[in-house]
Amino acid sequence: MSIKVDALISRQFLAANLDEIREMREESRKQDAKSHIVWRNVALFFALHVGAAIGLYQIFFDAKWATVAWVFILHMLGSVGITAGAHRLWAHRSYKATLPMRIFLMCLNNIALQNDIIEWARDHRCHHKWTDTDADPHSTHRGCSSRTWDGCW
Question: Which positions, given as ranges, span the membrane (predicted)?
């Protein structure tokens, strides 16, 4: 069974060398994980949550229905920018898009505020290539902090 899986993995887009992954895991066991705080990201997350608290208050007490509808529309458009743009088009290259469509998806991606497309696609490709190793930017082995405060640590 392992031979079939190894052969399948080797044919995948951006497939990692399985020996390389084993070596990385062994090497990571020898080293102590040292985390550092990226203060820029902490400040941005803090500002985001303060803004969300203000927005939540305003939705219930100040906002008009058109504002609430606009927030919902922006949320949906940002989700399309991440899903159809950064994820499917640029990270996985699942399809080809015309220049106007790529520009449109770039604009939608900006609404989501999840870094630029190049950084998003790079991190996502690394995540798939080196899943749950030290090279994985979203590794589950780093604990809750890497999933909750992704990018801060």
Answer: 38-61, 67-86
